[in-house]
Each structure stands twice: as C-alpha cells, then as structure tokens.
Specification:
The complex is a heterodimer of chains A (293) and B (352). The radius of gyration of chain A is 19 Å and the shape is globular. In chain A, 49% of the residues are buried. Chain A has one domain (2-112, 145-279): ABC transporter involved in vitamin B12 uptake, BtuC. Chain A has helices spanning 2-30, 37-54, 59-82, 90-111, 137-159, 161-171, 173-178, 183-209, 213-221, 223-230, 235-260, 264-279; strands spanning 127-130, 133-136. Chain A contains twelve helices and two strands; from the N terminus they run ααααββαααααααα. Chain B has one domain (46-347): ABC transporter involved in vitamin B12 uptake, BtuC, CATH 1.10.3470. Helices cover 69% and strands 2% of the residues of chain B. Chain B has 13 helices and four strands. The two termini of chain B are 18 Å apart. The chains are: A mainly alpha (293), B mainly alpha (352). Chains A and B meet through helix 4, helix 10 and helix 12 of A and helix 6, helix 10 and helix 12 of B.
C-alpha cells in the first residue's frame, strides 16, 4: 500500500515539478509570479487537442506547432503586456498574471465549452508490476517525458551560452546588461520556456485525466505550493517541491481520506505550504532576502 | 464651485477634516443620499433594485479588501473565502441556532474577522507574493471545510437562512433588502473613509509604503497587518451575512476563486488606496458584466460555435482584457482619472 502510494506520488509529483519549473524560470528572470500557469497549461492542452482531433494533423506537426505557438504566446505576453508594466508596484504584476488567467480561461470556455474531451490513444494501455506496485504505461511514459524535459532544461541552463545569459539575468539585471545581455529578450525567452513546459505538462495531464478546463488547471495550480515549498528561486527546489507535493498528496488521500472524507488531497498541499511558510518562509532552497531601508 | 480654485485654506481643525468642504459639496451629498435612499427604492423596478443590491454587497466586501490591499499593501486573493465564512456563519446562526438576523450579522462579521486574523499569521514572517499565495490557500482550505462540513454547512447542497424581521415585519422583497444593504453600505463606506484617516490608517499606509522604515516611526508592523486583516475579513463577513440572507439559499458554488480575483479587479479599475475609488470600480465592472450578460447571447447568435460557453467565457475574457488595459494605461484607476477631470474643471477655462 505505502509503496504503491509512494510510487504514484512520485509520478504525479514529477508533473508538478515540471509545472513548478515553468513558474520558477519566470520568477527568477523577471520577478513575476505567474498565477496564470494553470490556465496556460489548460489552454495548451486544448490547443494540442484541437490540432490532433479537430484539424487531424500528424503528431510531429502538432509538436512543431505547439512549440511555435509557445514562442508566439511568450512574445505577445512579454512584449505586449508585461513590458509596459516594468517598474509598477507588486499589485500590478500579481494582477496582470491573474488577468491573463482570466483571458486564457475565458478563451477556452468560449471556444471549447462543454464536457471533457479525450486524446486518441497513442500510448498502449496496461500496467507494469514492479515489486507489488502497479504502474500504468501512461504514467511511466509521462514520468520519462518529465525526466527528459528536466534534463534538457538543466542542460540548457548549465551548459549553453543562452542558458548562462539567463542565469546572469536572474542574478542581477544591471550586471547582466553591462555584460551585453539583452535583459528584456531574456524575459521573453523565460516566458517561452515556461509556456513550453506548460505544453508538455498540458499534454501529459490531458492524456491522463482528459482534456477538461477545471481539473487540468486545478492540477497545475498545485504547482504553486510546490514552488513555495521548494523556494521561488531554485530549479532544484522546484523539482523537490513538486515531488514532495505529489507524495504528500497521494499519502494524504491514501491515509487521511478514510478519516476526514474525500477530497482532502486537494487541500493538503496548501496546508503543508502554510505550515512551512510560517517556519521556513523562503522555502527549502529559496534565497533568504536581506533588505535594507 | 465644487472645489476652491486656489486650494484649501482651512481655518479650523473641524473644517480641515470635514468630508464636504464647501456648501456646494454638502448640497450634492445630501441630494445624492436622498436619491439613493428614498427616490431609487421607491420608483425603480425590482430588476434595477437587484442590480443595486448586488453592487451594494460587493462594495462592502471590496472596501474591506481595499483597506487590506490598497492601504496596507497586503495582497489578499481569498476574499471570496472570507465572504463564504460570513455567509455560512450567518446561515448557521439563523438556521440551526434560530438566532435573529440582527444578532447573527455582527457575530458572523466578528467570527470572519477572527478567521482572517488566523490567516494573517504568516505575514509575521513573509510578505508580497507569499501573502498572496497563503490567502489563496486560505480560500482553498475554507471552501474545502465548507464543502465537507456535513450537516453543519449542508455540504454541496448548501444551507438556507431565515429572512431578517423586525417584530412581525419580514424582509422579503428586493425593495426591503435594498434598505438593509444600501443602508449598511453607506454606513460602512463612511466608517472606512474615516478609518483610513485615523492613526490606524496612517500607520497601515506607512507599512504599505515601506515596511522596513515603518518600525522606526514607532509602528508595530505585525500588529497593524493583523488588524488590517481583521478589518478586511470583518467587512467580508458583513457582506457574506447579507449575501446569505439576500440569496436565501447559499451553496459553495456562490464563492468561486474567480470572485476573489474579481475583487482585486475592482480595486485595480477603481483605484487601490481610495475608498470612493472602490465604489467606482465595483459599479463600472458590475455594469460591464450586465452588458456582457446582454451581449453574450448576441455573440452566440452571430457565431454559433461560441454559443454554449458564450456568457461565462466572454465574461472572463472581457474581465481579463479590461484589467490588463487598466493596468497598462491607467494603473491608478478611475478614481485618479476622476481627480484629473475635477482639477481640470476647477481651473477651466485656463490651461494651468
């Protein structure tokens, strides 16, 4: 029982970690906390469904089109909406992502209303038995995709020149600029990367739970506690926070649901997050901020 | 006429703190109150009264949020959750405990205030985004508790509340509720307007502007943050209690997370850090949403693919776009625009 829960938790947690990565990348670069992440995940999920099912495009073309739309969306959001807001107070930057959430949510409800849709079955269904824990092929594939994506992004940040430029931007805008890095372009790149993680996460979640706005965006919203627990500036923290949330959640639902009634898994991550914030405000790996007047 | 052209030169303290500085302003204010409290309720259809009632309830909750977010600078993404606490407290008191509405309303408001204080505790350690996310979590936790409250809260089926009554007179129609709701709205707006000019108001403004410098002015930052949370949740509690009584039957669906975002939206559109601005924001967005309710089916008729999700989808979409436009072009809200208009009127016809 506990092994099964832990393994399931790890699978779910890896998806959360991927979503948390998207939030962390934007926050590190431009200090904007992206509340619209869940809505963008759902939007990309629907977009992929529209490409595959409504327009009957082959998978490789869908893949390319999703990347292209991530680039276009990231550019529009950064250049059209966020650039005019540089220098505005915190409330503006919080509210603008919440407004984006409304725009994406509204677009989805407007174009694709009604019940859940489903992707055609690409991955054969079935389960793999692993020492008493049953794992479905779907979640195995999604785990593999998440791990691959994580490795790819890690490689990008650690070993490429563009990745170095992004890390430089995250350290200090002024210094990055004096080294010839175009900071605003890095912001755009951060949004594009974040929306790419949204697309991957959206397709994976849509594949597991069906293409449906509320559950998909709700699932992606759980990346918020993951980011908080991991620390807002840390990619490793995002990974660890996501996995922790996944395990908390499955164990919470496995052991506590019979005691307190169903659905406790939905709030357990938030309770854990508030408890952690009171004792360790900047998460496990976040920077401790030292402020001066 | 409405403003003195060359500035305010008051000769006594009482004159300086008066809300209406000139005789003209006093006349306008009295005429406005007469229209609001006597003429509108007596000569309007029940549809218009229902719009007014909903706007009134929303204004109360939004003013509370403005004190916390606009004045104290703590972003609260859980206002709908606090309203739910107030609504359910009122419904439980009147339904299960057979209390009078007039006793249940203040009790519900105080209990909601205490719940708000509970979620203010993380503000001891963190600020900014963290507070925003903890209040978001507060909303999730509150709604989960309400949905799983069993017989006490009625779960997903909701809870009915008994209507308020004085003696044998029972409040039932839109018009009856209009007097309670708008009366309380006027009263609480007046209270808030004065509250933000007291020592407390100045202190929370100092906390908002720089919470590192505030302690050097002798301000206990944590205490003022917690008090601001209490007041915000108190207003939410009053709004919730009114809502429970006005809708007669409340379910968890009346308090979606979306509403919490709308409340911040009212502040952005009206002007955060201005009590009267809140009213501007609520009225503007509520009228806009009425417009969308008319326009949504129209859009569905023109383009049939949009028909099924037209109203709710278009509502969300319009709201998001309006907020983004305001943030980019008028981040200080309608209130600021109104002030600019007034001052240009004051010096008219000269350009400066």
């Amino acid at each position: 029982m506990i092994l099964q829960l832990a393994v399931t938790g790890l699978m779910v947690g890896m998806v959360y970690a991927l979503m948390a990565l998207g939030i962390v990348v934007i926050y590190k670069c431009s200090s904007i906390f992206n509340f619209s992440h869940g809505a963008i995940v759902a939007f990309m999920c629907y977009l992929a469904w529209a490409f595959i099912v409504q327009i009957h495009l082959p998978l490789w073309l869908t893949f390319l089109l999703l990347i292209a739309s991530a680039v276009v969306l990231g550019w529009i959001i950064q250049v059209g909406i966020l650039r005019p807001l540089i220098g505005q107070p915190l409330l503006a930057s919080v509210m603008v992502t919440l407004a984006l959430m409304q725009v994406f949510g509204g677009t989805v409800t407007l174009i694709w209303p009604g019940p859940a849709r489903f992707y055609p079955e690409i991955i054969p269904s079935g389960t793999l038995n692993l020492g008493g824990a049953a794992i479905s092929y779907e979640s195995l594939i999604s785990l593999a995709v998440c791990v691959l994506a994580f490795i790819a992004f890690m490689y990008f940040f650690q070993y490429t020149k563009l990745g170095l430029a992004m890390r430089g931007t995250a350290e200090d805008h002024q210094l990055a600029r004096s080294n010839g890095i175009r900071v605003v372009r890095m912001f755009t790149l951060a949004w594009i990367i974040a929306i790419l993680t949204c697309s991957i996460g959206g397709v994976l979640v849509g594949n597991m739970h069906g293409v449906n706005y509320e559950p998909v965006s709700g699932l992606a919203m759980k990346a918020l506690p993951a980011v908080m627990i991991g620390g807002m500036e840390s990619v490793v923290g995002a990974l660890l926070g996501g996995l922790l949330i996944g395990i908390f959640e499955t164990i919470g639902s496995g052991f506590l649901d019979p005691l307190v009634g169903g659905g406790f898994a939905d709030v357990f991550p938030y309770i854990a997050m508030i408890a952690l914030i009171i004792f360790k405000p900047y998460g496990l790996f976040g920077y401790e901020k030292i402020e001066r007047v | 006429m409405s403003r003195r052209p060359s500035g305010n030169f008051e000769t006594s303290y009482a004159q300086d703190i008066a809300i209406c500085h000139t005789g003209f302003q006093q006349v306008v204010m009295i005429l406005f109150l007469i229209a609001l409290l006597i003429i509108i309720p007596l000569f309007s259809s029940s549809y218009i009264l229902s719009v007014f009632n909903i706007i009134g309830i929303t204004i109360i909750a939004a003013i509370g949020l403005n004190i916390l977010t606009g004045y104290a600078g703590q972003i609260n993404l859980g206002q709908a959750g606090f309203i739910a606490v107030g609504a359910y407290c009122c419904a439980i008191f009147t339904n299960h405990l057979h209390m009078s509405f007039w006793l249940a309303l203040p009790l519900a408001a105080i209990i909601t205030g205490l719940v708000g204080t509970l979620f203010a505790l993380p503000s001891l350690r963190v600020k900014g985004f963290y507070i925003a996310v903890t209040t978001l979590a507060a909303h999730m936790i509150i709604m989960w508790l309400i949905t799983h409250g069993g017989k006490v809260t009625g779960g997903v089926e909701g809870l009915a509340s008994t209507p308020p009554q004085i003696g044998d007179f029972v409040f039932t129609t839109e018009q009856h509720y209009y007097f309670i709701i708008i009366g309380l709205t006027v009263l609480l707006t007046y209270a808030a307007k004065n509250l933000v000019r007291t020592r407390f108001g100045r202190a929370i403004i100092a906390v908002r502007d720089n919470d590192l410098a505030a302690p050097f002015l002798g301000i206990n930052v944590f205490r003022y943050k917690v008090t601001a949370f209490f007041i915000c949740a108190f207003y939410a509690g009053v709004a919730g209690a009114l809502m429970a009584s006005y809708y007669k039957m409340i379910t968890p669906e009346y308090f979606p997370m979306l509403d919490s975002i709308w409340y911040i939206g009212y502040l952005i559109v009206g002007g955060a850090g201005s009590i009267v601005g809140t009213i501007f924001g609520v009225v503007f967005l509520k009228l806009l949403s009425q417009l969308v309710m008319w326009g949504g089916p129209l859009l569905g008729a023109i383009a049939p693919i949009f028909s099924a999700g037209a109203v709710s989808g278009l509502m969300q979409f319009t709201f998001g776009i309006v907020i983004i436009i305001f943030l980019i072009f008028e981040p200080r809200g309608l209130w600021h625009r109104w002030q600019i208009m007034l001052s240009s009127m004051r010096i008219w016809p000269f350009p400066y």
